[in-house]
């Protein structure tokens, strides 16, 4: 993943892109997938953001041990429709495409960059990236997404607690939205009163933090404090 504070590559965007660590949830203009907190944003204030993995030069090759495949970074998939082999969502733009003969594996750049192990807290709660899910997702309560058992993160100390990659990303949006609503009591929520807006935020807070607390086996207040660490580790 790029460590640079700025990137100038006109194959991506006409202006220099600056690294940001304070981005609200955004739709990446490269892969069209969700982004959060860390990304590269146009220095000239265009509404243009990229995930760090999407800033790699087109034509860059990578090899992923979990696939034993060689991938090349392309502006768009060789054919459509194309499904990501990790999250099972459609790929409509930037893609890592396998170049090995007879292989049709395609990946979102952000999925290709997912860490094999997520360290949630300093005391060592770990989540392992797995090629499938063999329990119901702790968030959506289903095993399959779109008729497939997608890749997942599994809590190492509690293997029965597993998460779809897509569900974890949605959880990040919900947590950010909860913070945004709680920090803006005067927010106009489609004509709803501030009190109802805050009720919505508190409900989102309860559902997300409850999931996180159950995952770690900790209380709600401690779960809330550690949630940001977890989400930042997933976004980075």
TrEMBL record:
Keywords: Repeat
Pfam families to which the protein is assigned, alphabetical: C1_2
Every DC1 domain range: 12-54
InterPro entries according to UniProt: C1-like_sf, DC1
PANTHER family in UniProt: CYSTEINE/HISTIDINE-RICH C1 DOMAIN FAMILY PROTEIN, CYSTEINE_HISTIDINE-RICH C1 DOMAIN FAMILY PROTEIN
Protein name: Cysteine-histidine-rich C1 domain family protein
Origin species: Rhynchospora pubera
């Amino acid at each position: 993943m790029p460590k640079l504070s700025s990137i100038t590559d006109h194959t991506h965007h006409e202006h220099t892109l600056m690294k940001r660590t304070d981005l609200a949830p955004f739709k990446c203009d490269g892969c069209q997938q969700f982004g959060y907190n860390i990304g590269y944003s146009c220095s000239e204030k265009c509404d243009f953001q990229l995930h760090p993995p999407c800033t790699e030069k087109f034509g860059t090759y990578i090899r992923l041990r979990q696939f034993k495949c060689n991938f090349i970074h392309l502006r768009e998939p060789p054919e459509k429709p194309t499904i990501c082999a990790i999250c099972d969502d459609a790929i409509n733009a930037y893609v890592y495409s396998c170049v090995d003969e007879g292989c049709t594996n395609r990946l979102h750049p952000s999925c290709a960059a997912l860490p094999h192990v997520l360290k949630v807290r300093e005391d060592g709660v770990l989540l392992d990236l797995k090629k499938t899910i063999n329990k119901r997702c702790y968030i959506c309560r289903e095993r399959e997404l779109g008729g497939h058992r997608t890749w997942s993160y599994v809590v190492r100390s509690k293997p029965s607690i597993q998460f779809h990659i897509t569900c974890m990303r949605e959880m990040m949006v919900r947590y950010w939205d909860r913070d945004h609503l709680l920090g803006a009591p005067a927010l106009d929520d489609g004509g709803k009163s501030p009190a109802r807006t805050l009720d919505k935020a508190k409900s989102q807070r309860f559902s997300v933090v409850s999931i996180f607390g159950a995952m770690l086996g900790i209380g709600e207040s401690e779960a809330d404090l550690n949630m940001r660490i977890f989400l930042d580790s997933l976004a980075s």
